Amino acid sequence: MSEHRIKKIVIVGGGTAGWMAAAAMSKLLHDDSITIELIESEQIGTVGVGEATIPHILYFNRLLGINENDFVKFTNGTFKLGIEFVDWGQTGESYIHPFGPYGMDMEGIHFHHMWLRQQKMGQAKPIDEFNLQILAAQANKFQRAQVELQGSPLSTIAYAFQFDAMLYARHLRGIAEANGVVRTEGKITRVNQHPENGHIASVDTDNGHHIEGDLFIDCSGFKGLLIEQTLNSGYEDWSHYLPCNRAIAVASNKLDELTPFTRATAKSAGWQWRIPLQSRTGNGHVYCSKFMDDDTALQSLYADLNSEPISEPNYLRFKAGIRKKPWNKNVVSLGLASGFLEPLESTSIHLIQTAIARLMTNFPDKLFNQHDIDYYNERTRLEYEQVRDFLILHYKATRRNDSPFWHYCRTMDIPDSLHKRIEIYKQNARLYRHDNELFNHVSWFAVMHGQGIHPERYHPIADMLPDDELHRRMEEIHTVTGKCLQVMPGHEDFIAQHCKASSSG
Predict the structure, then answer these.
(1) Rounded distance, CA 466 to CA 472, Å?
(2) Are residues 6 and 128 in the same domain?
(3) Do both 337 and 188 map to the same domain?
């Protein structure tokens, strides 16, 4: 069998995806006989995968042995308890999608059913007051979970990060190179295929390098140099569900107060992000070119900045969708090369992370078992579809009708998988997590409720609790959550104590 083992892995492209793959694979593949080479060109600018994440990045960093405080320092990072959505349901409304739970589950059912019962009785306090992450975000407070305090909201604090993705990639490069990864500078000018099976045999660069490999990882961004331009793997267009196809990004001065959340503000033909870092603020306007031109989009972006711009605008074009074969022959695509889902819920880095994990689970030999490849592609597609549906929900569940864009979104056809979820929730507030998908019932409830979908009923088990007992429990949860908020330090105080960046000013 040893003659079939993969000996040479070639990663095409750096950036976040390339260096995440290089760092992880060099860590997990403990074999001196395997060499990993990454090809990138300083002449080719990288598209930042986003400067905000979801909590799963904690596990990736731990795998690599990255100290969390050090990570926040070297990326000029801040902490993130959730995402604030402004003007999505209706202009003038806002809500926070938190990473941590509402209240606590009771009688074997999710907390929101008990809250909905109280609401029907006219006795419910605002749902946000039962979620410590939301309260902390609103109060600009932060701390890590105290897991030893079992039963306390302080034990279930879930968080992610807001950070400079370029600095993160640079750090990952250091880890990868320390683990033996070879970086080759160069621009690929020729891709050579095996005549008998069409697999990639080697690539040539503009500075004379000829690089052979057994397994190729395509991290070349939207163009998909290997996966699409060479292997013609195809692309499934989802822009009828997610019509935004442009973005303009610009950096601005740091905020006076660093918020522990990312903000997404809906606009007339898309939305604007705001990501607070220790050193600066990341901003961007995501929009649909059918409903807004580039100049108008730029003006709109500048008009809604919360601090002075400090960079030239960066124009991006994209199309929501997925590669039909994310793994084709001996090429596995990662990041933007494998598909694109807009950064509304900060899933880009997560999708790279899970793809790497899936590849390691199905790591091939030189025979490249087609059943393994098919399984990988099926699981990748399912994951993208699940995230896609969650993103579509934000657009579909709007009551706005103040622009042609929002009229389109409100009235557009949606996938059956999402339609069924919405109808089930409308009827009896039930929310399911399919196949351990990324977004759980807390996330689905936050968006559905936040954007005005109100169920007709709740779970019948919620009625089995006597009124006075329900009231007592809800009061206790509310009181404890409020007390937990009081003991939390300020977000910036926490950063100053544990992980202040040297370049943050």
Answers:
(1) 10
(2) no
(3) yes
Same domain (yes/no): 309, 379: no
pLDDT the model gives residue 505? 45
Q: What is the CATH number of the domain that holds 379?
A: 3.50.50.60
pLDDT, one tens digit per residue, over 219-255 is 999 999 999 999 999 999 999 999 999 999 999 999 9
Q: Check whether residue 221 and residue 124 sit in a common domain.
A: no
* Separation in Å, CA 391 to CA 128, 242, 345: 22, 8, 7
Q: Which one of the listed residues 73, 80, 325, 396 is annotated catalytic?
A: 80
Single pTM value for the model: 0.96
Based on the fold, state whether residues 27 and 173 are members of the same structural domain. Answer: yes
Q: At what angle do helices 348-361 and 370-396 cross, to 10 degrees?
A: 160
List, in order, residues 6 or more apart from 378 with CB less than 8 Å away: none
Write out pLDDT tens, residues 305-351. 999 999 999 999 999 999 999 999 999 999 999 999 999 999 999 99
Residue 187 annotated to the active site: no
- Any residues with CB less than 8 A from the CB of 332 and at least 6 apart, and which? 215, 216, 217, 218, 326, 355, 359, 376
Q: Which residue type is seen at 2? A: S
Domain of 461 in residue numbering reads as 98-159+412-492
Q: Of 317, 343, 376, at which residue does a domain stop?
A: 317
Question: Is residue 359 included in any domain, yes or no?
Answer: yes
Show the tokens assigned to 444.
Answer: 């689905």
Burial of 235-244, coded b for 16+ CB within 10 Å and e otherwise, reads beebeebbbb
Amino acid at 271: W
Query: Model confidence over 44-103: pLDDT tens digits?
Result: 665 554 589 999 999 999 999 999 999 999 999 999 999 999 999 999 999 999 999 999
CA angle (146 as vertex; 143, 148 as ends), nearest 5:
175
Q: What is the pLDDT of residue 1?
A: 55
Q: Is there a domain that residue 241 lies in?
A: no
Beta strand 281-287 pairing with 270-276:
antiparallel
Total structural domains within the chain: 3
Q: Are 205 and 29 in contact (CB under 8 A)?
A: no
CA distance 418 to 81: 26
Burial 391-428 (b: 16+ CB within 10 A, else e): bbbbbbbbebeeeebbebbeeeebeeebeebbeebeee
Structure-block tokens of residue 4: 């079939």
297 and 434 share one domain = no
**Token pair 């609790």 in the structure block, residue:** 465
